[in-house]
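Project outcomes to date are best conveyed with an example. Our students and postdoctoral researchers have been running inverse folding experiments weekly, and each run begins with a structure described purely in tokens. The record below, which covers 169 residues, was selected by the lab manager from last quarter's runs and is presented without edits.
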């Protein structure tokens, strides 16, 4: 777990601290599939600004995930440019909105924050390309490589009695 110790900096109200950090990204399970960050370690910019009522944290980094396409199960690559912010009030009291879940004992959990930022910015479907045709529902072939259709000549057995009646007339 990569953390940043806030005791290493001293900020007064209105001051800001910027620092380059390395994040260790872990694989992500999404929709029953595994997506792997490449590379696993990425550079990031951490910003800490002291306000009169608390501290504002900012994290900016680029992540690239590799895994299966939602439609055709081929290789998909997702590029994410992430910029996220968190706030920690000086005296948060019982209010959850005034505290960040990534801060504990003056240590900021950077990897947990980065993991959650990635998860919150994932699209509904991770595709190999925007116009991915997917797999054929009948034979299972990749429609991107081999576009085709199947002629469906089978009739629903519930309509067979009506088909016989039509033939008799």
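After processing, the design step wrote out the following sequence:
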């Amino acid at each position: 777990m990569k953390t940043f110790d806030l005791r290493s900096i001293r900020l007064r109200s209105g001051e800001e601290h910027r620092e380059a950090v390395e994040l260790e990204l872990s694989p992500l399970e999404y929709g029953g599939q595994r997506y792997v960050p490449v590379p696993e370690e990425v550079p990031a910019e951490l910003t800490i600004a002291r306000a009169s009522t608390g501290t504002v944290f900012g994290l900016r980094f680029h992540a690239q995930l590799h895994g299966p396409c939602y439609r055709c199960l081929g290789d998909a690559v997702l590029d994410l440019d992430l910029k996220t912010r968190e706030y920690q009030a000086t005296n948060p009291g019982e209010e959850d909105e005034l505290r960040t879940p990534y801060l504990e004992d003056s240590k900021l959990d950077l990897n947990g924050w980065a993991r959650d930022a990635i998860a919150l910015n994932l699209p509904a479907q991770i595709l190999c390309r925007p116009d991915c045709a997917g797999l054929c529902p009948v034979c299972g072939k990749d429609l991107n490589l081999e576009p085709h259709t199947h002629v469906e000549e089978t009739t629903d057995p519930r309509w067979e009695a009506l088909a016989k009646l039509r033939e008799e007339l």
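The CA atoms of residues 21 and 44 lie 5 Å apart. The first helix runs from residue 110 to 120. The training component of this project remains on track.
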